[in-house]
Amino acid sequence: MTIYKRIHSDKNIWIVSCICFIAGILLPMFTFSKFVFFNDTFSLLGGILHLLKEGEFFLFLVVFGFSIVGPLYKLKLIRDLISQKEKDKEVQIKLIKKLAIVGKWSMADVFVIAILVATVKLGMLASVSVHIGIVFFGIAVLLSMVLVQRQMSGYEFRPKEET
Hints:
Layout: H1 3-26, E1 28-34, E2 38-43, H2 44-53, H3 57-84, H4 89-104, H5 107-122, E3 126-130, H6 132-152
Antiparallel strand pairs: 1-2, 1-3
Helix pairs in contact: 1-3, 1-6, 2-3, 3-4, 3-5, 3-6, 4-6
């Protein structure tokens, strides 16, 4: 695959990832059913705003940071890196290092933990069913992981050996 085709392919994957991310945060993700009478359906963004409205500021900051801000920053770094291919190698290396740090705090792990916390917190009082928003969000997570791997291939960061 030539560098032009790879860049073009990466741009397309990036666009699909962005579309899936936006759909994932806006479309319904969960329905919480309490007993027989109460059903609340939330998108990720709606759930985050609900946390803020309910005064759960710490949980709001954690979920917002790891589910919205972190992924958007990662997508920005990937876009910047794709546009730097065949250009300034120093800038590419700086972007790769930032991407490696952001990649360690991937949204997937924190998102799964948030689901588990919500499920455990609800316990026997309510049930949770998932909707299409979680599928789009999951696709966005996977595509961004693929892009990170593709962008980082060929780069290896090791501590400099002292002589």
